[in-house]
Write a structure and sequence with these properties.
The complex is a heterodimer. Chain A is mostly beta strands. In chain A, 0% of the residues lie in helices and 50% in strands. By secondary structure, chain B is mainly beta. Classes of the chains: A mainly beta, B mainly beta. Chains A and B meet through strand 6 and strand 11 of A and strand 5, strand 9 and strand 10 of B.
Chain lengths: 118, 113
């Protein structure tokens, strides 16, 4: 079974600084998807970034980028130029691809609570 | 973005009473999911559906049942609510079977007293 581990329950960063959130996972699959979701105090789950395991290039979305190390099974999220609006819970998630079957469920880590301080 | 709504947004109920949470989507996505979120546990899968009347259990399905009689609606029922089922419940849909990733509803905060 796949597992996702986020080893940092809480982190804080000063506004405009850079912060990196860690995520490791365990799987025997060679192809899969990895995600980072953001949950602000509003409770809404927001997709931040997505990585496909067969793509070697690290995904980037504006100030958010990942460091995907497939051999190490590591998927960290870097937030550059942190803003107060980045304060949120961040979840790392794993998904095995599914093509017509009954799999493809998202498996989440326990989350990292990020506080951006002015 | 796909339209996905959950109702109710908040609910307080008594131990032993039945409770049904509703998830509604405005498009014809095949896969729908129910998760619960608890501090220190992240989100855990309760049940999911891969089509009308096609459902399966997730990691924490005990005490829950689901039904999907129409593509757009996925219902989660707590037959006899217990205090351990106090949680935030999220519904999600998978918009693309190929690309992956979910869109979530706004969540239902359920308190069992």
């Amino acid at each position: 079974a796949q597992t996702v581990t986020q080893s940092q329950p809480e982190m804080s960063v000063q506004e405009a600084e850079t912060v990196t959130l860690s995520c490791t996972y365990d799987t025997s699959e060679s192809n899969y998807y990895l995600f980072w979701y953001k949950q602000p105090p509003s409770r809404q789950m927001i997709l931040v970034i997505r990585q496909e395991a067969y793509k070697q290039q690290n995904a980037t979305e504006n100030r958010f980028s990942v460091n995907f190390q497939k051999a190490a099974k590591s998927f960290s999220l870097k937030i550059s130029d942190s803003q107060l609006g980045d304060t949120a819970m961040y979840f790392c998630a794993f998904m095995k691809p599914n093509y017509g079957g009954s799999q493809g469920n998202l498996i989440f880590g326990k989350g990292t609570k990020l506080s951006v301080k002015p | 973005d796909a339209g996905i709504t959950q109702s109710p947004r908040h609910k307080v109920t008594e131990t032993g009473t039945p409770v049904t949470l509703r998830c509604h989507q405005t498009e014809n996505h095949r896969y729908m999911y129910w998760y619960r979120q608890d501090p220190g546990h992240g989100l855990r899968l309760i049940h999911y559906s891969y089509g009308v009347k096609d459902t399966d259990k997730g990691e924490v399905s005990d005490g829950y049942s689901v039904s999907r009689s129409k593509t757009e609606d996925f219902l989660l029922t707590l037959e006899s609510a217990t205090s351990s089922q106090t949680s935030v419940y999220f519904c999600a849909i998978r918009e693309s079977e190929r690309v992956g990733g979910y869109t979530f509803g706004s969540g239902t905060r359920l308190t069992v007293v």
